[in-house]
Amino acid sequence: MAFAVINSDLSYWKKQSKPLFDDVLWNIPEQKTGHVSIIGGNSQNFSTVIRISEFMNQNFPIRTITTVLPDTLRGKLPTLANLDFTPSTTSGSFAKSHALNIALNSPDACLLIGDLSRNSATAIAITDAIKSSFDNETSNFSPSAKTPTSPQDPSSFKPLIIARDSVDLLNPEGSSWLTRPQTFIIASMAQLQKLFRAIYYPRMIMLTQPLIPILETLHKFTLTYPVTILTLHQENIIVANAGQIITTNLHDTSYSPLSLWSGQLAARVLALNLFNPKHPLEATSTAILQN
Q1: For strand 244-249 and strand 236-241, is the pairing parallel, antiparallel, or unpaired?
Q2: Distance CA 85, CA 72 (A)
Q3: What would the mean pLDDT of 106-124 be, rounded to a whole number?
Q4: CA separation (Å) from 51 to 55, 233, 250?
Q5: Which residues in 215-231 are b (16+ Cβ under 10 Å) and which e?
Q6: What sign results for the dihedral spanned by CA atoms 129, 265, 20, 17?
Q7: pTM (2 decimals)?
Q8: Of 258, 257, 216, 262, whose CA–CA distance to 240 is shortest?
Q9: Cα–chain center distance at 191
Q10: Residue 5, by phi and psi: left (phi above 0), alpha (psi -120 to 50) or beta?
């Protein structure tokens, strides 16, 4: 496997204290449009997926927001609009099913919000659902290239945001979904470290490293894989895509080191990329400062 060469002059790095791309916010439509799914929860914990669905419904002009839960919760919740259930494992988390594939791939964008439990059957089910939408494109993808060699435009893929403990659950299968364009990983440095280790990436990231080596590694990683990464290191929120980096100091945002991972930022990333499908770096970095 060939890997990208690091650009040592840091010309790929920009800083923002206010949105650098005003057009991203202007592209938020006045009329409700689009269909998104928010997938998460298990028999013991489902509050986050409900909370984030309500947050998106209150803050973005999205026509349909489907909240997807394992069917072990059927009958345990009050009647809610656009609530969907897919088959569950005996332990109460998502099982492999055609319904899960549809829930993940049919909407215009999808957010895996977490609370999925540490169930290997669920990890396989969700990984297979992700792969079901791009198996043909994966066969044409060269990890040394920025984009698939297939003539299909990468922006034609629907945004898939992987957040919170969804990252931990899917880490072992990372090599099978990291080649999917329009995939967004919102993860702590510790989670990224485990992901890199799981796929045997040759350049590790260390929690004690200074900022510059981290940026260099993410620059190289996102030239190798067509994903967008959002993480936090030394009070800098880092967004990396196609070798380009934008950092935002945490003090210039409304987030704390804890609230950054609550799911609200992931929801904003989903919405702005839904409305700006050809500009993942711009939309994701703007989401950090969007209120």
Answers
A1: antiparallel
A2: 8
A3: 94
A4: 6, 27, 24
A5: bbbbbbbbbbbbbbbbb
A6: negative
A7: 0.91
A8: 216
A9: 13
A10: beta
DSSP assignment of 153-195: -GGGSPPEEEETHHHHHHGGGHHHHTT-TTEEEE--HHHHHHH
The token pair that represents 15 in the structure block = 């800083």
Q: What is the mean pLDDT of residues 226-248?
A: 98
75 backbone φψ class: left, alpha, beta (φ>0; ψ -120 to 50): left
- In this structure, which amino acid lies at residue 190? A
Chain centroid to CA 198: how far?
A: 18
179-203-280 Cα angle (round to 5): 40
Helix, strand, coil tally for the chain in percent (to 5): 40, 20, 40
Q: What is the pLDDT of residue 128?
A: 94
Provide, rounded to the nearest whole percent, the portion of the chain with pLDDT above 70: 89
Give the contacts of 275 (CB within 8 A, at least 6 positions apart): 24, 27, 28, 29, 34, 283
Backbone torsions φ then ψ of 65, nearest 5 degrees: -120, 110
Tell me the pLDDT tens digit for each residue of 59-110: 999 999 999 999 999 988 877 789 999 999 999 999 999 999 999 999 999 9
Distance CA(290)–CA(246), nearest Å, equals: 15
Angle at CA of residue 127, ends 126 and 128, nearest 5°: 90
Map tokens 């656009």 to a residue.
82
pLDDT at 189 over 50: yes
Position 148 pLDDT exceeds 60: no
Residue 139 scores a pLDDT above 50: no
Q: Which of 215, 231, 213, 212 is nearest to 223 (CA)?
A: 215
Residue 81: exposure state from Cβ atoms within 10 A (0-12, 13-18, ≥19): exposed
